[in-house]
Amino acid sequence: MSAVSLDLDPFAEEFLAAPYAHHEALREAGPVVLLAPIGCYGMARHAEVQAALRDWQTFVSSRGVGLADFQQEEPWRPPSLLLETDPPLHDRTRSLMNRIVSLGALREVAARWQAVADDMIARLVARGRFDGVEDLGAAFPLAVFPDLIGLRSAGREHLIPYATAVFNAFGPRNAVFERGMADAGPAMAWVAEACRRDQLLPGGWGMQVYEAADRGECTAGEAERLVRSFLSAGVDTTVNGIANLIHAFAMHPGQWQRLRQEPALLKRAIEEGLRWDSTVQTFFRTTGRETCVAGVTLPANAKVLLFLAAANRDPRRWENADQFDVGRQSSGHVGFGFGIHQCLGQMVARLEMEVLLRAMIPRVNSINLMGEPRRRINNTLHALASLPVEFRAATD
Q1: What kind and span of H or E run contains 125?
Q2: Domain containing 268: what range?
Q3: Is the distance from CB of 312 to CB of 338 less than 8 angstroms?
Q4: 338-364: average pLDDT
Q5: Dihedral of CA 267/269/272/278: which sign?
Q6: Per mean pLDDT, which range of 98-107, 142-151, 176-185 is the poorest?
């Protein structure tokens, strides 16, 4: 059986601005589709997407998780040693990073992060109206994450523009990419400098990577690239994860009231937010060999676009999948990927969301939209540029 061909460009700006409007058509067209405008295959159903993410031998990451095939063209930057490698190299670098990005390490900073969150939320409640992206979604990660890595203070404003450019580059070289790269030069230069050993503060996760290099667990060059991985994926994704969750609660006030009444649902609410509005919408894989998916034959050396966000709202997997429900059991979502390449920093993102919600539940009675949210178009991320909201103080 051959894949159904669709005249649908998932990198057209109208698609990127409102991707959920197209996901049902992608899922219903079949388990595998041919995306004619970009000349690659696509999968949007949960079962097939999750299976592909798990099967790294067939759906290869080391040839690039963007549209470009690294066997056919030179990468625009050195490939990520985590996201864009396969075993055995991936096993070595991931094992090293897992020892640094550990639950124990996060427990050490949890109380400090909670204090920062408590203070930030108290100030926003007193203020009333604010921008949920700039004043919360971006402000909190930038207040805690760079210190965790051990970045110096000057220049941290470059972190979000840098990550924006990185995620734009996973798509085609379209107008979205060109606009993102036009202003990215200073951010790229700052990150290249910030990842050097002599720029990192002692005790941070960045310096710990170099100390692993001292022990022979990686080379000094690999250490620099691994520190860069923290900065590529550890900020902008969390900024939008927080902003998307605040947006979800503003659109579903009953769900916020339920969480306030049942704070034990806090972790379920975070997972539901990640499922319902996935920050990372898509990633590519390349078939390392001919394979058959749900009766559809895919040739070797084919690019396959995995629609993570569409999979996360697949009604074959979840009942009333388009509804935001903080009581839902959302385990199995692919918002952080799945399998050996799932997001290294997912525990960091979850902790940031957790301390913010813990600060909000006793202080915020309601979350109200005070204007039309504005999207920041990105080839990979579902990002908000602005989210005008109001926190009304709790009186109980």
Answers
A1: helix 103-127
A2: 4-393
A3: no
A4: 95
A5: negative
A6: 176-185
Q: What is the pLDDT of residue 180?
A: 86
Q: Which segments of 101-219 does DSSP mark as H helices, in order?
A: 103-127, 139-149, 159-168, 175-182, 185-194, 205-214
Query: Which CATH number do you get for residue 247?
Result: 1.10.630.10
Question: Do residues 177 and 379 lie in contact, with contact meaning Cβ atoms separated by under 8 Å?
Answer: yes
- Phi/psi at 118 (5° precision): -60, -45
Q: What is the pLDDT of residues 5-50, one digit of tens each?
A: 999 999 999 999 999 999 999 999 999 999 999 999 999 999 999 9
N residues, the chain: 396
Q: What is the CA radius of gyration of the chain?
A: 21
Nearest to 249 by CA among 239, 260, 238: 260
pTM metric for this prediction: 0.95
* Adjacent-strand bridge partners of 391: 367
CA-nearest of 241, 72, 81, 64 to 170 is 64
Task: Please check whether residue 195 is in contact with residue 227, taking contact to mean a CB–CB distance below 8 angstroms.
Answer: yes
Which tokens belong to 219?
């080379």
Q: Tokens at residue 277, please?
A: 């509005």
DSSP category for residue 309: H
Give the number of domains in the chain: 1
**Is residue 101 pLDDT above 90, yes or no?**
yes
Closest-CA residue to 376 (of 186, 281, 240, 185):
240
235 falls in which pLDDT band (50, 70, 90)? confident
User: What is the rounded CA–CA span in Å between residue 389 and residue 130?
Assistant: 6
Over pLDDT 90: what percentage of the chain?
Answer: 92
